[in-house]
Every structure is written in C-alpha cells, then in structure tokens.
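Hello support,

Our group uses your service weekly, and this is the first time we've seen a run hang past the timeout. The protein is V-type proton ATPase subunit G. I'm not sure whether the cause is the sequence or the server load. Input pasted verbatim:
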Amino acid sequence: MVSVSARQSQIQTLLEAEKEASKTVLQARQYRQQKLKDARTQAAKEIEDYKRQKEEEFRAFEASHAGSTQTAQAAVDQETQIKLREITDAYNKNKEQVVKKLLDRVVLVKPELHRNLKKAQA
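Update from on-call engineer: The timeout came from a worker crash unrelated to the input. Re-ran successfully.
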C-alpha cells in the first residue's frame, strides 16, 4: 500500500496541476478576449479608412461632373431661348389670321336646324 505521505504528495501534485490548469485556462480566456478587442478595433479602423476613401472618391467625382452640369444647363437654356423665339415668331406671324377667323365665326352666324331636329322631322 501507498503510504500516507505519498498520498499527500500525490494530492498536492494534483492540486498544483489543477491550479496550473486554471491559470492556463484563465490566460487563454484573457488572450481570446484581447484578440477579440484588437480585432474589433482593427475592423473599426478599416471601416473608417474605407469610409474616408469613398467620401474622397465621391468628392472627386462630384467635382469632375460639376462643370458638365453647368455646361448642360447652359445648353438647355440656349435651346429654350431658341424655342421661345420660334414660338413668338409663329405667334406674331399668325395672330391676325387667328383673330380674323375667330371673329368671322362669332359674327357670321348661319342659322340652320340642329342635326337631331332634322332627323326628327324626316
């Protein structure tokens, strides 16, 4: 049989091994938590960098297309002025004829029976 002191020694060895295992598990947990924290920080930094890059690209795109917007607006304004001039010219050219036709229709009335009344009499 194993002596009492040998048992005490074995128990002591097991307790020390258990403490060492607890320390190892605790260190592993702390290491994992630190890695997660570092990963979150790194991800946040990468997101900010990406966001900053995309904002700069957007500003550059906006600046490069701002001139073309002004050019397009000028072209539309010029087209509008040309169309307006054409419409005004057509109005001035035809207004007297239109007024004459309207007056002729209003003043010169031809009395005749309505088509429904003609059908009823027939």
